[in-house]
Design a protein that fits this description.
By secondary structure, the protein is mainly alpha-helical. Helices cover 75% and strands 0% of the residues. The chain has one domain. The protein contains 11 helices and no strands.
Length: 210
């Protein structure tokens, strides 16, 4: 399936350039299983060949993620949770969605709050799902958009740069990138823990007497 998707992704980007990158990254964040690990590195490869601009590729990817995330946010905002869970149980297998991944994203959002919408853009699985609990929690849409766009900008730039760096060997990422994501996830979990721990210490500090 990944091989078939990769072929479709490559064909679409070759024929439509930035618009293809935008559409594919929109679909990924709108709960459609389109791997950004193929989309952005291949676009980076085309940058390496001089066929596309690195800046425009990154912006197309980030804005695509933002639009897709807003679609998922709207689903969470307007639909009841039992409806979402019912849909995932019935049709999730067709989009590689599981109740476990959804519940994990909900727990992350409850535990770390609004800031996880930024950090989650660099996390496997949670990256796709986090917009749903953000919508359910009725997170401020402007804050959601800013956090999502900034996180997506970093992610898109990172993947595109790897494609630029590897050149024609960009496809070598396909077999290893899923494992590499868990290293990223571990590092970000540590960063989130440090951030939360710092905030808790500030809350516990005694106020100065006037």
């Amino acid at each position: 399936m990944i091989e078939y998707l990769s072929h479709l992704i490559i064909s679409l980007i070759e024929s439509t350039n930035y618009f293809g990158v935008f559409i594919l990254m929109t679909l990924e964040s709108a709960l459609i299983p389109i791997p950004s690990e193929v989309t952005m590195p291949f676009a980076g490869f085309l940058v390496n060949k001089g066929q596309m601009s690195f800046t425009l590729v990154v912006l197309a990817g980030a804005f695509g993620n933002l639009i897709g995330s807003l679609i998922a946010y709207a689903l969470g905002y307007y639909l009841e949770e039992h409806v979402i869970l019912g849909f995932i149980k019935k049709y999730g297998k067709f989009a590689l969605l599981t109740v476990h991944d959804y519940e994990k994203s909900v727990n992350w959002f409850k535990k770390y709050g609004n800031s996880i919408t930024f950090f989650s853009r660099l996390l496997p699985a949670v990256r796709t799902f986090i917009s749903l609990p953000a919508g359910l929690a009725e997170m401020n849409i402007w804050k959601f958009s800013v956090y999502t766009f900034l996180g997506s900008l970093i992610w898109s730039a990172f993947l595109a740069y790897i494609g630029v760096y590897l050149g024609s060997q960009w496809h070598s990422l396909e077999g290893y990138f899923r494992q590499f994501q868990f290293l990223i996830a571990f590092a970000l979990i540590i960063l989130v823990f440090i951030y939360v721990n710092h905030k808790l210490k500030l809350v516990k500090l005694p106020r100065k007497k006037s």
